[in-house]
From TrEMBL:
Gene3D superfamilies: 3.40.50.2300. It comes from Prauserella oleivorans. Residues 5-123 form the Response regulatory domain. Residues 152-217 form the HTH luxR-type domain. This is Response regulator. InterPro entries: CheY-like_superfamily, NreC/VraR/RcsB-like_REC, Sig_transdc_resp-reg_C-effctor, Sig_transdc_resp-reg_receiver, Tscrpt_reg_LuxR_C, WalR-like. Keywords: DNA-binding, Phosphoprotein, Transcription, Transcription regulation.
Length: 221
């Protein structure tokens, strides 16, 4: 099986080097490039076509949010997954990053073993939010008023009652195994429901399903 190819984007050389050494030391992972600015990150993603980009938020020339958006929507790089790493706990960056197409959001003080696990999870096509970030993300969604969102019926048009149940539990942070137990379904059936939700809502991954659940008003309102 081919190694997971990783691009490290951070404006601090020491941080890039540290993450690069950590990734290269792990079995099944390899660094294919580095970038010190958002512009360089987009160019490097187009050049190397990595499986995962470790993306800092605050970088010169172009921030990590805009770089993420360009990578996730670009025809050459739309299959590239972006994992946001930041020193900031929770602010508008997390919302903007996930809406831009990021598949995960971790803090830079995440233990090395968890970071390596996160890279593998994101590369496999799943989404990941640090548990602490997930809890605060939910708190923030429930606290914020909605502005200009489409009504619930429009966002969830065509979504069945069972799929809404699945979506609500995803928004509450349940894993597929926990979903199966909660709804008394097989794991395969849960995965089928999630696949249909992704298609119907035009969501890239699980992280965007969480956003859809809250922005539609299904969860937390």
């Amino acid at each position: 099986m081919a190694d997971v190819r990783v691009l490290v984007a951070d404006d601090q050389a020491l941080v890039r080097g540290s993450f690069g050494m950590l990734v290269d030391s792990a079995e099944g992972l390899t660094v294919v490039g580095e970038a010190a600015t958002g512009v360089d990150a987009v160019a490097a993603a187009r050049r190397h076509r990595p499986d995962v980009v470790l993306m800092d938020v605050r970088m010169p020339e172009m921030d990590g949010i805009e770089a993420t958006r360009l990578i996730c929507t670009g025809p050459e790089t739309r299959e590239v997954r972006v994992l946001i790493l930041t020193t900031f706990d929770l602010d508008d960056y997390v919302f903007s990053a996930l809406r831009a197409g990021a598949s995960g959001f971790l803090l830079k003080d995440t233990p090395p073993s968890e970071l390596l696990s996160a890279i593998r999870i994101v590369a496999a096509g799943d989404a990941l939010l640090a548990p602490k970030v997930t809890r605060r993300l939910i708190d923030e969604f429930t606290r914020r008023p909605r502005h200009g969102n489409r009504p619930l019926a429009a966002i969830l048009d065509g979504v069945t009652d069972r799929e809404r149940e699945v979506l609500l539990l995803i928004a509450r942070g349940l894993s597929n195994t926990e979903l199966a137990a909660e709804l008394h379904l097989s794991l395969a059936t849960v995965k089928t429901h999630i696949g249909r939700l992704l298609a119907k809502l035009g969501a890239r991954d699980r992280a965007q399903l969480v956003i859809a659940a809250y922005e539609s008003g299904l969860a937390g309102r």
